[in-house]
Amino acid sequence: MFSRLKQGLLRTKDALVNKVAHVIKKAVTIDDEFFETLEETLLLSDVGMTTAVAIVNRIRELYRAEKPTDRDALVDLMRRAISELLEQGGPAADHPFQPGLNVVMITGVNGSGKTTSIGKLAANYKARGKNVMLAACDTFRAAAVDQLEIWAGRAGVPIIRQKEGTDPSAVMFDAVQSARAKNIDILFADTAGRLHTQVNLMEELKKIRRVAVEKAGVESFRSWLVLDSTIGQNSLSQMKLFNEAIKIDGLVITKLDGTARGGIVLSIVNEWKIPIMYVGVGEQMDDLMPFSAAEFSAALLGDSLNGHIVEKNLPPDSDR
C-alpha cells in the first residue's frame, strides 16, 4: 500500500521535492534569505501562502532548537514539520465506527470522483467485515444512480434507489429504514454534485441531513467531502462553501496520481483542521487508501530527497 502511495505521489514529488532539493543543495548559508527562498518554493508548488509560511516557521524553530550539522538532517526537519501539520487534521482514517448504524453522506461537485469513491469505500469496509449499504440520493441524474448501482455490484453490497426525480431526502429516509432492518453497519449516501455555487444544492444537502437525523433518528451521521486534487487551490473554496452549508467531518482527496498539485493536501489540513479520511492514487478498487499523515509525508519527501546527492555538511548559520 505504501509503495502505491509513493507511486501515486510521483508528480507532486517531482513538482515539490525536486525544487526543495535544489534550494537546499544550492544554499550558501542557512539564514533568513534561505528560509524566504524555501517559502517561495513551497508557494510555487501549490501549497498556498498561509501553509507555506506555517511550514517554514516550524522548520526554522526546529533548526534553531536542534542545530543540525548536515543536509539530510535539514530534510528530516522538513519531513517532520509537514507530518506535524498533517496530523492537525485529526485521527487516522481507520478509526472504528460506533456500534449500530452509521450514516455517511458523501458530498462533492460533479467530476470530483464522488460516486467512484463511494464504491471503493463500500468495498473497503466490506473487506473489513462490515455490513455496508449504498443510498442513491442523487436523483437528479439517472446516470448517477446507474453508476452507483454498478459500483454496488462490484463491491457486492445492496443499494437503495428510486426513480429519477424522487425527493433525495425521501431516498435517505427509506435507506435508513432498510439499513436498520438488515442490520447494516455503514450506509454511504451519494448526493447531487451540481455546481457548488448553486444555493439549491446546498439547501438540498441540509434537508437530507435533517431528514436523516431528525426524522429517521440517525445517531451517528457524518458528512464527508470529496475533493479533486487536480484543481489545486480551488479546493479551498469548495471546502468553504460545503462546510458553511453542512458541517464537514472528513475529506476524501482523489486523483493524486494524476496531478503535480498534491501540495493542496497540506493547505486543506492546515487551514481547516478536518481529518483526511482517504486518498485516491489510482483507478483500481484498492487504490483508495486510508490516509496516514506520517506515510503521506514519507512518501512525498522520502529518505533521500528524491535521489538527489547532497553534501553532508551544512554551511555555517549566522544565527547560531
Give an overview in words.
- With 320 residues, the chain is of the alpha/beta class.
- It has one domain: Rossmann fold, CATH 3.40.50.300.
- 50% of the residues lie in helices and 12% in strands.
- It is built from 12 helices and 8 strands.
- The protein has an 8-stranded mixed beta sheet, with helices on both faces.
- About 3% of the residues have low confidence.
Topology, please?
Elements: H1 2-8, H2 10-26, H3 32-44, H4 49-66, H5 71-87, E1 102-107, H6 114-127, E2 132-136, H7 142-155, E3 159-160, H8 168-181, E4 186-190, H9 199-215, E5 220-228, H10 234-245, E6 250-254, H11 264-272, E7 276-280, E8 288-290, H12 293-301
Parallel strand pairs: 1-4, 1-5, 2-3, 2-4, 5-6, 6-7
Antiparallel strand pairs: 7-8
Helix pairs in contact: 1-12, 2-3, 3-4, 4-5, 4-11, 5-11, 5-12, 6-7, 8-9
In a nutshell, what does this entry contain?
The chain has 320 residues and is of the alpha/beta class. The chain has helices at residues 2-8, 10-26, 32-44, 49-66, 71-87, 114-127, 142-155, 168-181, 199-215, 234-245, 264-272, 293-301; strands spanning 102-107, 132-136, 159-160, 186-190, 220-228, 250-254, 276-280, 288-290.
Q: Keyphrases for this structure?
A:
320 residues, alpha/beta, Rossmann fold, eight-stranded mixed sheet
Please, what is the CATH homologous superfamily?
P-loop containing nucleotide triphosphate hydrolases
Order of helices and strands: HHHHHEHEHEHEHEHEHEEH
| Apparent shape | elongated
**Helical proportion?**
40-55%
What is the level 1 CATH name?
Alpha Beta
- Total individual domains: 1
Low-confidence regions: 304-312
Output the radius of gyration: 22 Å
Q: Total number of β-strand segments?
A: 8
| Mean pLDDT across every amino acid position | 85
Derived from helix and strand composition plus strand pairing, the structural class reads alpha/beta
Strand content: 5-15%
At CATH's second level, what is the architecture? 3-Layer(aba) Sandwich
Helix count from the secondary structure assignment: 12
Sheet having the most strands? 8 strands, mixed
Could you tell me the CATH topology label.
Answer: Rossmann fold
Rounded to the nearest angstrom, the distance between the terminal CA atoms is 41 Å
